[in-house]
Design goal:
Elements (H helix, E strand, L loop, with lengths): L3 H4 L26 E8 L6 H20 L7 E8 L4 H14 L3 E3 L4 H14 L3 E2 L16 E2 L5 H16 L4 E6 L2 H16 L4 E7 L7 H9 L4 E5 L2 H13 L5 E4 L5 H8 L7 E4 L10 H13 L7 H19 L6 H8 L2 E4 L4 E5 L2 E4 L4 E5 L5 E4 L4
Parallel strand pairs: 1-2, 1-3, 3-4, 4-5, 6-7, 6-8, 8-9, 9-10
Antiparallel strand pairs: 10-14, 11-12, 12-13, 14-15
Length: 386
């Protein structure tokens, strides 16, 4: 059960309030002066940086739109519920949001949670926009209610293997993966990338979600003497794996998938982070020469002045911008169907990063970028693996 504070995260920057009865409109969550979206994500616990980062970015985009008068006089609001990055809690949180009468669901975090709630999404016929996951389950077969913003995990693992083989001459690959649907998606993508090159994993080991129990998997992987370890996990267990590995002089190339939560990973790693690689699905969040990044910095500073711009919050901002632009493009009555008609057709160009949707294509972006943690503990863009 959720108490009132857990259910409703009110954010002053966007004037979020509890969902109260309003006069009748054609669609749930829409009134004369506002549109209410719901989010279930990890806001506490070992994956909290992912949920709060997504929320911060979405709220920055909503506040930016609201400061300009909203769309047709309606302001955007977000109700966020903590699901602890656990599927059961995500289902409960989603039921709460649906009962409260949100117009759409936005910015969910994680494969196991997103896939657990998707039957509810289909039953309610509610838009499911910008989930922070690259799982194929929201892409193939085509899911008409899902609007993806990021590249898939399969695309990320392909880039990982390609760059490690070409740049480092890597031949022996191992993988650490979270033992759930997220890890399974990354493991499948890695195997496909290796199969393409007639290679196989020399070791694979899983760990339990929401734990840092990675020492036994580490010893299993070390025995195989890999050139590179692909990591499909969250920031705390991945950081623990790398720190312990380096403390026992096990130092292959470590490469993480974007879901890891890059900024939180670097913070957790501290001095042990130098040289750790992460694939990204969003432009570099400190490069303000990119128009969308510059707009993001301005919006985040206005919405939450103490927030540090990062990869996750930038992705949340792009998701929020997509919601706003989709609503803006609706001509006539705003309904879930008319919104989805706009979100599933055409291009959304934000300046340096664009999304394209069409028949049977809800992918949005195919872009994958490579980054590395420098000796100073900060991320830098990378064109190749040194």
């Amino acid at each position: 059960m959720f108490n009132r504070r857990d259910i409703l995260t009110a954010v002053a920057a966007t004037g979020v309030t509890a969902l109260c009865p309003v006069r009748s409109f054609a669609e749930t969550g829409v009134s004369a002066d506002k549109i209410v979206f719901g989010q279930a994500a990890a806001l506490d616990g070992p994956a909290a940086a992912l949920g709060t980062g997504m929320r911060d970015g979405i709220l920055a985009a909503f506040a930016e739109a609201n400061a300009a008068g909203g769309v047709q006089g309606r302001k955007f609001e977000l109700v966020s519920v903590d699901d602890g990055y656990e599927p059961k809690r995500a289902i409960e949180a989603t039921r709460t949001l649906l009962d409260q009468g949100v117009f759409g669901l936005v910015g969910y975090v994680g494969t196991p949670t997103s896939m657990a709630v998707f039957p509810l999404v289909k039953s309610a016929k509610i838009p499911f926009i910008g989930a922070f996951t690259g799982t194929g389950g929201l892409r193939n077969p085509y899911q008409p209610l899902a609007v993806n913003v990021r590249a898939s995990y399969g695309q990320e693992t392909e880039v990982m293997v390609e760059r490690l083989v070409k740049d480092k001459g890597a031949k022996r690959f191992a993988i650490l993966y979270q033992d759930d649907a997220y890890g399974a998606a990354g493991l499948a993508g890695t195997r496909r990338a290796l199969d393409k090159r007639k290679m196989t994993l020399v070791a694979e080991a899983g760990y339990e979600r929401n734990t840092v129990a990675v020492r036994v998997p580490l010893l299993e992987i070390r025995k195989a003497k890999p050139d590179a370890v692909i990591m499909i996990g969250a920031y705390r267990p991945c950081a623990e794996f790398i720190k312990v590995a380096r403390s026992i002089n096990f130092d292959p190339a470590f490469i993480n998938i974007s879901f890891v939560g890059s900024d939180a990973l670097a913070k957790e790693l501290g001095p042990a982070g130098a040289g750790v690689l992460v694939t990204q699905v969003i432009p570099f969040p400190q490069d303000k020469s990119i128009p969308v990044v510059a707009a993001f910095h301005k919006a985040l500073k206005a919405s939450k002045p103490d927030a540090v711009p990062g990869f996750v919050s930038l992705e949340g901002y792009v998701v929020g911008r997509t919601v706003v632009e989709g609503v803006r493009r609706v001509k006539g009555e705003l309904t879930r169907d008319t919104l989805m008609a706009q979100l599933t057709n055409g291009t959304f160009d934000y300046g340096g990063f664009s999304l394209t949707y069409g028949p049977n294509n809800n992918q949005g972006s195919n872009a994958v970028y490579l980054t590395v943690i420098g000796a100073d503990g900060k991320f830098k863009p990378a064109t190749h693996i040194a």
